[in-house]
Structure formats: C-alpha cells, structure tokens
Amino acid sequence: MADAVIKELAARKAEIKKELELLFKANMKITDWDVPEADDEEAARILWRIMKETLDEIKQDIDAGKYKNN
After folding, report:
1. DSSP 40-70
2. Which of these, 34, 64, 66, 60, lies nearest to 47 by C-alpha position?
3. CA pair distance 59, 53, nearest whole angstrom
4. What number of other Cβ atoms are within 10 A of residue 51's Cβ?
5. 3-state secondary structure (DSSP) of residue 1
6. Could you give the C-alpha distances from 57 to 7, 21, 47, in angstroms and in order?
7. In angstroms, what CA-CA distances link 33 with 4, 19, 20, 63?
8. In the chain, at which end, N or C, are there fewer CB atoms within 10 A of the end residue's CB?
9. pLDDT per position as a tens digit, 11-70
10. CA 38, CA 16: separation in Å to the nearest integer?
C-alpha cells in the first residue's frame, strides 16, 4: 500500500508544486489589486509566512494522528 501512495504522489509531485505556486501567485495578484501601493517583496514574504504557518499546522495534525486510518 505504501509503495502505491509513494508512486502516486511522485507522479503528481510537479502538479502539486505548480498548484502551490499558482495559489501563491493568485494571492499576490489579489494583494496588488487590493493594495496597489503595497511593497511586493514584503507582501511575498508575508504570504510565504502564512503558507508556511498553515503547512506547519497541517504537519502538527499529521503528527497528532488526524490522518491516520482507523
């Protein structure tokens, strides 16, 4: 079973990475629309921190067994 999961996710790795990049860029664009005078580099760093914080929370959920099969 684990081998099938590894193969599946490896096959989709590029797609997953692209989706994360698209999410980041979409949020940058929204920030530019909402705050045209925003410093793009600062906005990018803040957005990255938000995404990292969320990924860290997901990791904590994984470690706590939230996604473990019953």
Report:
1. HHHHHHHHHHHHHHHHHHHHHHHHTTTT---
2. 34
3. 10
4. 14
5. coil
6. 25, 19, 15
7. 43, 21, 20, 38
8. C
9. 999 999 999 999 999 999 999 999 999 999 999 999 999 999 999 999 999 999 999 985
10. 28
The pair of structure tokens assigned to 64 is: 């706590």
Q: What is the DSSP string of 5-47?
A: HHHHHHHHHHHHHHHHHHHHHHHHHHHHHH-TTS-HHHHHHHH
Two structure tokens written together for 66: 């939230």
Token couple for 62: 């994984």
Token code pair at residue 2: 């684990």
| Tokens coding 45 | 């760093």
